[in-house]
Amino acid sequence: MAASKPVEPHSGSGFPRWQLALLVGTPIVLGVGAVYLWKRNKTKNTPGKSNGERTTPEGSANPASGQPSGNGRKLSPLDRAQGAKNKGNKYFKAGKYEQAIHCYTEAIGLCPRENQTDLSTFYQNRAAAYEQQMKWTEVVQDCTQAVVINPRYIKALFRRAKALERLDNKKECLEDVTAVCILEAFQNQQSMLLADKVLKLLGKEKAKDQYKNRDPLMPSPQFIKSYFSSFTDDIISQPLQKGEKKDEDKDNEGEAAEVTESSGYLKAKQYMEEENYDKIISECTKEVESEGRYTAEALLLRATFYLLIGNATGAQPDLDRVINMEDANVKLRANALIKRGSMYMQQQQPMMSTQDFNMAAEIDTRNADVYHHRGQLKILLDQVEEAVGDFDECILLRPDSALAQAQKCFALYRQAYTGNSQSQVQTAMDGFEDITRRFPKCAEGYALYAQALTDQQQFGKADEMYNKCIDLEPDNATTYVHKGLLQLQWKQDLDLGLDLISKAIEIDNKCDFAYETMGTIEVQRGNLEKAIDMFNKAINLAKSEMEMAHLYSLCDAAYAQTEVARKYGLKPPTL
Predict the structure, then answer these.
(1) Which helix (H) or strand (E) holds 520?
(2) Which structural domain range is residue 127 located in?
(3) Domain tally for the chain?
(4) Alpha-helix residue ranges (DSSP H) falling in 291-442
(5) Is residue 58 classed as helix, strand or coil in its secondary structure?
């Protein structure tokens, strides 16, 4: 699939990606976009504790009479407050919340101010009753009173977080639930799910506004060349043919001059060869507006560069036009369908994406690109067997397609790994050995093999594979990031890992993956301000709204930690 990053397996940890900006102690695996942290023990849920709803008030449900005790001793103000609370608990459990609130209010009034722990409990209990009445403002007010008295009061913090969510105050909700996650050492699924939910909502909201108003940004030349290299049946990415070249170019080559009409599209192709990418869209526009001979090609090339700069709104009309040109070259239409299908997948519209890939296969049955990119789509949809079938079809059409063979092997590895089939895992690993032997110039084969080796904790050999990638593609920044992450997991060498990721940024200062990873590591080190700076740099380079939303989630998670540290002095463990 024409995506910004190759396809990879999901994390086997069960944790959402945002926790990379919060959680220390779990090796997180995100495949080709992987973040590997060295192994520590995973946090585990405690049976009967970690998933429980915090809905009941605290304290005994046996009401005290508030009268003198049996031995004639007059009850103290605290005893009377406890009696009122216990009576309130009885009403609460009977579903009589208004009476419970009255009793908790009485307890608050009776409680001596020096009995801070009891007082905070009474406020929290009254908040629980207000919660049952869905009086969210009152819940926040009472939980705030409880937290002011006891800043590490988990029940009050979490109850306030839920109420703030109901009031659509996501920022403060996130801060409270972040504090809860840290206090609970990430062992409570309920609080972690709320944090995940709020972060995703915040990320989507911010990305929706920011992405449509962002300035277009051309990716690095290395990224653009890598993108086009994933197509083999793409007319617009092929070098200029002799009949297309400008007269002066052909004279320089000692060829007979052949006059060709002035064409914006041909100029755009020339700019592609010169890696002068910023001028391509304008030249294609000239071809389209003049309704020249290469209108269909110009539309597709312009749409492709709109996609590369993250302008899906500009790309879609051009792709639609090419797809609907029944007299256009079928390979142009199929390529437009692949790119529109990939765009739909980035927009989280898998059904429309699948329809486009299926249509491409119908109109151009022998187009290897269709099956290759649809195979990657199937992996994303967890349809691994269908993905393998598509890769097989691609290989049948193009037996020399090393990339398709490597990705087929990776799909089989993922299926075996997630299915805990050690024999099939070994078969897949043997397949990688065969592919790297038969296609020694395929950097992607080494990269995918390195990921599988890292999963299997064969770190030394994984490092060898990354070194071979670098030998083949020394300007591929992403490989340096992966190699740096490997050092963290393998040798716990933080300095070497950071040096390699810094090298990636030096090679390609538009490598959003490098900034994202650097930010993640800085969070783990407790350098939150630097982490936020790295995430913001990655946000400015995001190639899709979905990717930007994810990056905002990481940034918001880091920012929430700064607020929790400031307010409550709470910090998770650091590297």
Answers:
(1) helix 512-525
(2) 77-213
(3) 1
(4) 295-308, 312-323, 330-346, 350-363, 368-380, 384-397, 402-418, 422-438
(5) coil
Joined tokens for residue 316: 């879609």
- Are 194 and 165 in contact by the 8 Å Cβ rule? The answer is yes
Query: Which amino acid belongs to residue 208?
Result: K
User: What gap in Å lies between CA 278 and CA 215, rounded to an integer?
Assistant: 13
The number of beta carbons lying within 10 Å of the beta carbon of residue 222 is: 18
Residue 405 included in any domain: no
- For residue 165, being part of any structural domain is answered with yes
- DSSP class of residue 184 equals T
Residue 119 burial by Cβ neighbours in a 10 Å radius (0-12, 13-18, 19+): buried
State the sign of the Cα–Cα–Cα–Cα dihedral 311, 312, 318, 323. Answer: positive
Q: The whole model's pTM is what?
A: 0.83
* pLDDT tens profile 391-402: 999 999 999 999
pLDDT tens digits along 348-363: 899 999 999 999 999 9
Q: State the sign of the Cα–Cα–Cα–Cα dihedral 218, 224, 230, 236.
A: positive
Contact 142, 124 (CB under 8 A): yes
Q: Strand, coil or helix: what is 214?
A: coil
CA distance 525 to 527: 6
Q: Tell whether 196 is covered by a domain.
A: yes
Within its chain, how far is the Cα of 279 from the centroid? 32
CATH number assigned to the domain comprising residue 138: 1.25.40.10
3 state SS for 352-390 = HHHHHHHHHHHHCCCCHHHHHHHHHHHHHCCCHHHHHHH
Please report, rounded to a whole number, the percentage of residues in the chain having pLDDT higher than 70: 84
Cβ-based neighbours of 97, under 8 Å, separated by 6 or more: 91, 129, 130, 132, 133
What would the DSSP string read from start to end of 222-255?
Answer: HHHHHHHHT-SS-GGGSPPPTTTS-HHHHHHTTP
Contacts of 494-503 with C-beta under 8 Å, sequence gap 24+, read: 494/521, 494/525, 494/575, 497/521
- Please give the structure tokens belonging to residue 190: 């309920």
d(CA 240, CA 252) in angstroms, rounded, equals 15
